[in-house]
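agent> Task received from the user: take the single chain below, predict its 3D structure, and emit structure tokens. No templates, no multimer pairing.
agent> Plan: (1) validate residues, (2) run structure prediction, (3) serialize to tokens, (4) report one or two observations.
agent> Step 1 OK, no nonstandard residues flagged.
tool_call: predict_structure(input=
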Amino acid sequence: MNIVTPWALKPTTPHQYSNFPIHGFVEKYHNGLHHAAYLLAGSEGAHLVEMISDALSEEMVLSRRTFGLLSALGDILFLKHVDDPGKAQSGYFVAIDPADPVIEELCLLADGFAEALRICSEASPQGSCATNVNGVHGCQYHAGAQKMGELQ
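)
tool_result: status=success, residues=152
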């Protein structure tokens, strides 16, 4: 490595490892997340998964925008708005047969998603802290990630 090595290729510092579980989870279960979000929120949910995947492929540390997208996906997976008749999500959930084996898969996927977020928030002693290119540290989103990780 020399002075011209791009920042993206330089070794990461330990605090950045805290976000790898969510990166790996979204990459590994992309198709399942896409299908689940489509079943529970239609094309809007599927598009949300694509936006998250694109954002995580470009970010080593979660940005405020990406955390908001992850939070919205958590709301979908944990059926937060299913009782709200003003939200389209309630109509999608009602259309799923409770005896359908996909229900168990959705639950497992949601639990894995919450666990990946929980690990991210606990992996760093500062709670998902980021360092910008100037070396300035700043805790980001710890409380929100912790809350989403406890939704199980």
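agent> Step 4: summary for the user.
Residues 1-19, 124-146 have pLDDT under 50 and may be disordered.
agent> Done.
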